[in-house]
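Quick start: what a row looks like.
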Amino acid sequence: MQEEFLKIQNELKSQITCADSFQMENLKTVAGVDLAYWKQEHQEFAVCCIVVLDYQTGKMIEKQQFHDEIKVPYMPGFLAFRELPLIMETVKLLQTDPDLYIFDGNGYLHPRHMGSASHAGLLLKKPSVGVAKTYYRVFDTDYTDPGQEAGSYSDIMINGEVYGRVLRTHANVKPVFLSVGTGISLETATKVIQHFVTEESHIPAPTRLADLETHAARKALTEI
């Protein structure tokens, strides 16, 4: 299984683009994607929630969810293969066609640049960004902590290449770990993430709201 997944990742990674495939003035709708897991006896389940926000107003346009049993065991570096079946089924439920997807996780910040944000973005043929709350250490590389001011950042350099960005969205709070999925530059991704940060949270609104939806959905589903 792992050899097959590795082959798929290596075939797909050449399709990743770290340049903007859209004009900012045409960015109207942005989707946030997150998953929550739970175990029931000897089976593992997850629910995927997607919320779609208006880029200008930040208002939620739509939300959808889909849950199912998880068939792929956890293997470091291959998380996308656990998440993609649910993500793709949830996307099918959307009435909106989002211009950009933001995933709670990583994209280019991955040993083969194939985190869930990159893999899903390629399959969806949509620009995508990964925003993680915790650092995914690639090749045992540490990151440099950015300044404490809101908007401060430091790039994650590995073997002379920028894999992602450590971004302080609120002053004196934990940073987020930002990486390109595909079809967007790191600079534009940073602008989009900062645009969606509110006083309520240092996490951008699309993934923050998706995270809240997954917790509510998991609670409802496990109480049935």
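That is the whole record. The two ends are 33 Å apart (CA to CA). The chain has a mean pLDDT of 97.
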